Amino acid sequence: MITHTDPIDAHLAVLFALGLDADKLPTPRADGDREALRILLCAREELTTTSTAQTNRLKALPRDGSDADRRLARGKLTTTNLSELVRRRQPREASRAQAVRHAEVRRLALALREAARMLKANKAELAAIVNDLAPGLTDRRGIGPVSGAQAIVSFSHPGRCRNDAAYASLAGTSPIEASSGRTVRHRLNRGGDRALNKAIHVIANTRIRSDPATQAYVARRTTEGKTPREIRRCIKRYITRQLYRTLATAMAPATAAHSL
Question: Nearest 5°: phi and psi at 77?
Answer without folding.
Answer: -85, 90
